[in-house]
Amino acid sequence: NMDSALHYIHDSDLSTNSSFSPEEERKSKVQDVVPQALLDQYLSMTDPSRAQTVDTEIAKHCAYSLPGVALTLGRQNWHCLKDTYETLASDMQWKVRRTLAFSIHELAVILGDQLTAGDLVPVFNGFLKDLDEVRIGVLKHLHDFLKLLHLDKRREYLYQLQEFLVTDNSRNWRFRAELAEQLILLLDLYSARDIYDYLRPIAFSLCADKVSSVRWISYKLVSEMVKKLYVASTSTFVVDLMDELVEKFCRCHKWSGRQTFVFICQVKRHFIHLFCLLAGKAS
């Protein structure tokens, strides 16, 4: 269990300077944590010849074990694994890239913010443009990864969230359902302005999804969004959002739209006074 294992990171790892000079990067992959022969054997798993003669999925096994190896070596020895990680991240087999995509948030915790920004963010960006089988890995842990980034770097991804609405297969509704779940968590990472400008349009789009399971999660998303904007210092956003809810759903000429309005109102019953205001506007 990687989550429990992360508690055993040594204090020396946490205090180590995570920036390496070019000269240090060129040093041979030598460390004193584990037997060097064992590490060399692990690093050789990315050799294409081994995949042909030993095991066709050996690169996938290497990718699966990489966070554990990084945790054992510590962030001060990340230079021993960096090249191997980049090789695996560009592997032709999507299963290898998918394995790394599902664990990149764990590796970010081990490496710290500086190494994450320099070495993991470019890989993360590549996964965002990959096949759906790989993108789902970063999507399922989107909040876990973005919360480790500095605010400025985190805001850059606001422009890309809309891209998760587009999938290789339009019938892949679980992809959109996972997006709605992640957006609920992301509300705590962004300001009221960012929520209104970037997350609100995605939430309304998900509320009109063809699949009911996606819509139900989206109702909760919109309700939490109202809550977040209501407690924010700027009340303009919540008023505008309430007005939009009335126009898009409460006054919708289709019964399904009006039903959506009712469902959103009943999700958060302890916020019923807010939605009473909505009903007052609608009347």
From TrEMBL:
Gene3D superfamilies under this entry?
Answer: Leucine-rich Repeat Variant
SUPFAM superfamilies, sorted: ARM repeat (SSF48371)
Q: Which GO terms describe its cellular component?
A: cytoplasm
InterPro entries membership = ARM-like, ARM-type_fold, PP2A_Regulatory_Subunit_A
Tell me which UniProt keywords the record has, alphabetically. Answer: Repeat
A GO MF annotation of the entry reads:
protein phosphatase regulator activity
Which PANTHER family does the UniProt record give? SERINE/THREONINE-PROTEIN PHOSPHATASE PP2A 65 KDA REGULATORY SUBUNIT, SERINE_THREONINE-PROTEIN PHOSPHATASE 4 REGULATORY SUBUNIT 1
Name of the protein in its database record: PP4R1 phosphatase
The species this protein belongs to is Nothoprocta pentlandii
The top of its lineage is: Eukaryota, Metazoa, Chordata, Craniata, Vertebrata
